[in-house]
Here is the input.
Amino acid sequence: MSAIRFDSTKQYYATSSLVLGYALCSSLLAVINKFAITKFNYPGLLTALQYLTSVLGVWVLGKFGFLHHDAFTWETAKKFLPAAIVFYLAIFTNTNLLRHANVDTFIVFRSLTPLLVALADTTFRRQPCPSKLTFISLLIILGGAVGYVATDSAFTLTAYSWAFAYLVTITTEMVYIKHMVMNLGLNTWGFVLYNNLLSLMMAPIFWVLTGEYSDVFAALGANGGDWFEPVAFTAVSLSCLFGLLISFFGFAARKAISATAFTVTGVVNKFLTVVINVLIWDKHATPFGLVCLLFTLAGGVLYQQSVTGPTRESNADEKDAEENQAKSGSGKHASV
Here is the structure.
């Protein structure tokens, strides 16, 4: 009995560490990316450098024995490709939303995703319907975020278009990637390798479609030396490093918690992003908007309380164990 209790406690702390790591990386990456884009105004190239850093990081660390990743095969890549496309589109629309709107606009649309993911989980993945307390907590998150942005909104048609495109792709990505994580059988670093390598392969297509390649070549011809300006180089380097870290924590957290819980974590950790936005940039919400943000955080805490009860955890663990055993045959599941 004590051994079971010890294992349960160990699992709790392991899961909490993964979620905390993802939250910190996500919050800091948003800030670092915002700073990097101001110093290195090529978002497509910036994200491609992040993909490249993640691929090289996994490959090099694997060669030296610091980690283990599944070998890259084209057969597996074909199965993973749809998920990689959805992931790339989510990043692509996210970047363009941030280019045409402020952080507040991004947050309100990001905050809509837990409700949509919960509905998609119930409809397409046959997950249990959210409890009344869970649904109320999601409504509090949504209401707080809407109230926050309503105090400092400067929407345009272009921004709204990218915002709705981002909302669709990020909701699809949250649910579909969770499905891939549970069914494809790769370990965490294998997912990082496949996701980033396939995204890197797709990057040139979007460079051409968006016309960014012409801006890059023009900058190289005009003043290529400025690309190595220390501040810009540092910002890009940090962005790439945190891109690698969030790849690991993101996929590991997806395995450890539900798609909706993962989405809510992403919403709540934007609090740090907003705080820094208030401190270092001019465009931010009024005091009333900050109160609304506290409601968003309270909704996140309430949500965690509503989904971490002993009975729900036990039932969910039993269901996941049965599903994993049925799918793998041998009952083995990749460890993080």
